[in-house]
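Reminder: ligand-aware prediction takes two inputs, not one.
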Amino acid sequence: MSYRQRKPHKAVAFTAALTIGLLVGGVLGSHILNKAPEPGSEAAGNDRITAESWTSSLSDGDWQVSLSAEVRSLLTLTGAGTTRRADLVDNNPAAGLTAAGSSPMIHTELGAALWSNCTEIRIARHVDDAIVDPTSALSAIDEAISRLSELTGLNLVTGGDSRGDTTDLITPERDTIQIAWVPEGSSHLEDDELGAAEVWHIADARGIPTIVRARVFLSAEILADYSFGPAGGGVNVETAILHELAHAVGIGHSVDGDSFMHAELGSHAETTTTDLATLAFAGGRSC
Ligand SMILES: [Zn+2]
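Here is what comes back for the chain with zinc ion:
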């Protein structure tokens, strides 16, 4: 049994407002979650309580990237270079992430759904014929992939690119993240969506949720609205892609308005300490 979750990414004018939609396959049927509240509102403050929270898994903590003292502190890790935080449960990275306002795409009592870091994850890029500058569109994906790999330590391997009509795309193969640049008006996105990410996960033999395939849709509107720049370093095309790719590795939204994982890409979209900790966590799921 595999389950699928989707997060659409909506744009209002130049900023990206977002509605969280949850589509769960299999016997659970489907339903829609709440609309994302305006940043700073009371509802936004409650969001981290009502939304998905990080939970611990026995397989988590196999860090693939080096952790700064600041990140170790946020993850409540003891040891060299760690500052204890009295308000957090010691040595509970999942609780530390939740306290910092980060969230997973989906979780069970046995942990958040993440990729195994033993898996070679294939990146399959598709560019619709309607994309005017496919070379730039592909290189922006590469920049975001490179950043994602650097910050998670996940083994992301590009290959299997195609150009053509993206109306009918096959379900991504196992161990694959499919990324598709689609034209404005594509049936894959609602009118006001800039992008969307879908994640499929299974329960392993121990019941721990593990992501086995994912798909990201990117609207040509991203290329029209944003300029190019560093992924996770400001509001730009690469950051918009990195946002969706972070969903593809199991990361949900951050309540921090400065984070590139905030539901809306406003005037700030930086890679915060919480984001660094979350990305490291997302790559810390052993086999
Ligand atoms: Zn999002």
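The longest helix spans residues 134-152. The two ends are 19 Å apart (CA to CA). We will return to this case in the review session.
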